[in-house]
Specification:
The protein is mainly α and 138 residues long. The chain has two domains: 76 residues, Winged helix-like DNA-binding domain superfamily/Winged helix DNA-binding domain (Arc Repressor Mutant, subunit A), CATH 1.10.10.10; 50 residues, Iron dependent repressor, metal binding and dimerisation domain (Diphtheria Toxin Repressor, domain 2), CATH 1.10.60. The chain is built from six helices and two strands; from the N terminus they run αααββααα. Strand 1 and strand 2 form a beta hairpin. The longest helix is centred in the first third of the chain and has 34 residues. The protein is globular. It starts with a helix and ends with a helix. The mean pLDDT is 89.
């Protein structure tokens, strides 16, 4: 393994970027789920589902809007833009793939669902492709 200063900096930098992106991904996925199930995604309900404060949700929604992933209307909640919907779909597919792999190697489904919440944000496209190839029947 290459442990030069530059390679370590790249790995740690990648992890920081992924943590930042994970937050937006979780919000987009949850908002999409709420819109599909309830027809609305209000900040108060988002906060309750994520177990965070209303202020935290408002900051995240502001960031989603700034990134072009969401819109919000007073008294109507939050809605995803086409880019936000595409992000939510990618995150959901990645989550399903990670869960399916974990279950395939013997992890109980509930644990796989919980573990996938963290793993899904830190897996490279190369690794996801390998997961998909592994799961594909020969």
């Amino acid at each position: 393994m290459d442990d030069t200063v530059d390679s370590q900096a790249r790995r740690f930098g990648r992890a920081r970027v992924q943590r930042s992106a994970a937050l937006l991904e979780d919000y987009a996925e949850l908002i999409a789920d709420m819109l599909a199930l309830d027809g609305e995604a209000r900040p108060t309900d988002i906060a309750r589902r994520l177990g965070v404060s209303h202020v935290t949700v408002v900051k995240a929604i502001t960031r989603l809007k700034r990134e072009g992933l969401a819109t919000a209307r007073p008294y109507r909640g939050v809605f995803l833009t086409p880019a936000g919907e595409a992000l939510a779909a990618r995150v959901r597919a990645r989550h399903r793939l990670v869960v399916d792999l974990l279950v395939a190697v013997g992890v109980p489904r509930e644990d796989a669902e919980n573990d996938a919440e963290g793993i899904e944000h830190h897996v490279s496209p190369t690794t996801l492709d390998a997961f998909a190839r592994f799961l594909k029947p020969a």
